Amino acid sequence: MRPIFTLGVAALCLAATSAAAQPKPPREFLKDALQGDNSEMRLGDLAAQRAASPAVRDFGRTLHDDHARAREEALRVAQRVGVPDTQAMAPEARQEARRLDRLRGRAFDREFIRYMIHDHRKDIADFRKASRRGGPVGDLASRTLPDLQRHLQMAQQLDRG
């Protein structure tokens, strides 16, 4: 009985890994990209206003500005494929904004940088998958990846002090 169970678990793990390697459907990716840009703009604004470190405040402004441009581009692609505009933030980012609202000083800076590293790693993985798709969505993902990678590098440098 045990080998059958083990085989079943292995098959489920393989199926989950295969599904995770697949890019999101284009409409879902675009909706998530718009929410992500909204999130980065809002959190970037928060950091620009509340961070203790001038470098973190500058990073917040960079995030806001870069994601405002990325949002414009994502919105053009979304409109072409029939994805409605949204002003919503990603659920995880809404939760982070509430967490950051309670923090001040260096604690704010540390949490903001921690979240940006986590979020940009996840975004880079999603955008890499989408970039392999081709077409307008894949092209958008490919054009956006360098900025996401640069943001991750900036956050990692800030994390190192």
Word description of this protein:
- With 161 residues, the chain is an all-alpha fold.
- Helix 5 packs antiparallel against helix 6 (135-160).
- The protein has a single domain (24-160), classed as Ferritin, core subunit, four-helix bundle (Ferritin, Up-down Bundle), CATH 1.20.1260.
- It is built from 6 helices and no strands.
- Helix content is 84%, strand content 0%.
Descriptive terms for the model:
6 helices; mainly alpha
Brief overview, please?
By secondary structure, the chain is mostly helical. The protein is built from 6 helices and no strands.
Alpha carbon gap, first and last residue? 54 Å
CATH superfamily: Ferritin, core subunit, four-helix bundle
For the biggest sheet, the summary is: none
Shape: globular
Compute the CA-based radius of gyration: 18 Å
Lay out the secondary structure.
Layout: H1 2-21, H2 26-50, H3 54-80, H4 91-101, H5 105-131, H6 135-160
Helix pairs in contact: 2-3, 2-4, 2-5, 3-6, 5-6
